[in-house]
Write a structure and sequence with these properties.
Layout lengths: L1 E5 L3 H8 L6 E3 L2 H7 L3 H11 L4 E4 L5 H12 L5 E6 L2 H13 L3 E6 L2 H9 L4 E4 L1 H6 L4 H14 L5 E4 L5 H9 L4 E4 L1 H7 L3 H17 L5
Parallel strand pairs: 1-2, 1-8, 2-3, 3-4, 4-5, 5-6, 6-7, 7-8
Helix pairs in contact: 1-3, 4-5, 6-8
Bound molecules: erythose-4-phosphate.
């Protein structure tokens, strides 16, 4: 399973990328706004920090505008994936990008029927928003399982990118449900390393080791 960081904070990204565990990055217009920086500059910097896919989202809501913006974004670096909203206009643009050899991430997916359409439009990635569905009183993770079943049954190549991840349990559940990737906020990514029993166990081992008076080196 690939783990992506959902961020435009390049300092945090550089720090976590150094672990070798970050397979890619996703961004969205809200995260670009949060960075306070020009979008093309941020995307170019992120693409220099990770070799894997970096999603950069179009701002137009019309097909022609999405195509123009997407082509410009794809020109920033070879690992840019053009992120498109799951609308009728977005899926038409998605099919065009596929014919042009531009990778796509169809975002704001909230139903299995939408995911089916995105796969038929040739999306490289589909982004079901787990946390926002949970917030809405639905079961976000069951959507991942439904999409997995449909994509497997019809042998679609579109990768399932679990998005709107809010906690480590979401990451585990997405993996169990068969997601190909998950995009994770930096705070949650950092929490994935932790378990209270790991900390307690290490403390005990270090205390007992100190009593031996030994040194390995
Ligand atoms: C990633 O592609 C999405 O834009 C992101 O995961 C949305 O997360 P949020 O629901 O926490 O804003």
């Amino acid at each position: 399973m690939q783990l992506f960081l959902d961020t435009t904070d390049t300092a945090i990204l550089a720090d976590l990328a150094a672990t070798g565990l970050v397979d890619g990055v996703t961004t969205n217009p809200s995260l670009i706004a949060k960075s306070g920086r020009p979008m093309l500059e941020v995307i170019a910097e992120i693409c220099g920090l990770v070799e894997g896919p970096v999603s950069a989202e179009v701002a137009s809501t019309e097909t022609e505008g999405m195509l123009a913006e997407g082509r410009k974004l794809a020109g920033v670096a070879t690992n840019v994936v053009v992120k498109i909203p799951l609308t009728r206009a977005g899926l038409v643009a998605c099919a065009h990008f596929g014919r042009e050899g531009i990778q796509t991430n169809v975002t704001l997916c909230f139903s299995a029927a939408q995911a089916l359409l995105a796969a038929k439009a040739g999306a490289s990635y589909i982004s079901p928003f787990v946390g926002r569905l949970d917030d809405h009183g639905a079961d976000g993770m069951s959507l991942i399982a439904e999409i997995r079943a449909i994509y497997d049954a019809y042998e679609f190549d579109t990768e399932i990118l679990a998005a709107s991840i809010r906690n480590p349990a979401h990451v585990t559940a997405a993996a169990l449900a068969g997601a190909d990737c998950a995009t994770i906020p930096p705070g949650v990514f950092t929490d994935l390393f932790k378990h209270p029993l790991t900390e307690k166990g290490l403390e005990q081992f270090m205390s007992d080791w100190a009593k031996t008076g030994q040194s390995i080196l």
